[in-house]
Design goal:
single chain, alpha+beta, two-stranded antiparallel sheet, disordered N terminus
Length: 121
């Protein structure tokens, strides 16, 4: 999960006509991301509006919209352009690795991913 703090974003600024932006890599989608109710309670206790990133799933387990949450946090940190892909790494095994999927299937390994953020020189 991508985490940004105020201190890490405090130095972002507009340079000429360029403004900070990000094309977010794919992530697990809300329909596949079942979380513990205590996670929901914790995130909502930090900021009650975070409730909008949760939906009720089967067996009364909440589902979390990680992509929407990260996009919201990036926008709040000052990024002007945020592109999300709307792809689900869990449900697309032919395209993406997923630790959660591998764990659910009892697979011995799950692959790796790397992300890169580049700034114009």
């Amino acid at each position: 999960m991508l985490a940004l703090t105020r201190s890490s974003t405090a130095s972002w600024r507009t340079v000429g006509s360029w403004s900070p932006g990000l094309s977010r890599p794919p992530a697990i989608a809300a329909r596949s991301y079942e979380v513990d109710p205590s996670f929901r309670a914790l995130l909502v206790s930090y900021y009650p509006a975070n409730e909008r990133f949760f939906s009720d799933g089967p067996a009364d387990k909440p589902h979390f919209d990680l992509e929407a949450y990260v996009a919201f946090r990036l926008a709040a940190a000052g990024l002007k352009t945020i592109e999300t892909l709307g792809l689900d790494t869990y449900s697309l095994p032919e395209r993406y690795f997923s630790y959660r999927r591998a764990t659910h299937r009892g697979e011995p390994d799950y692959g790796r991913q790397i992300s890169l953020i580049g700034l114009p020189s």
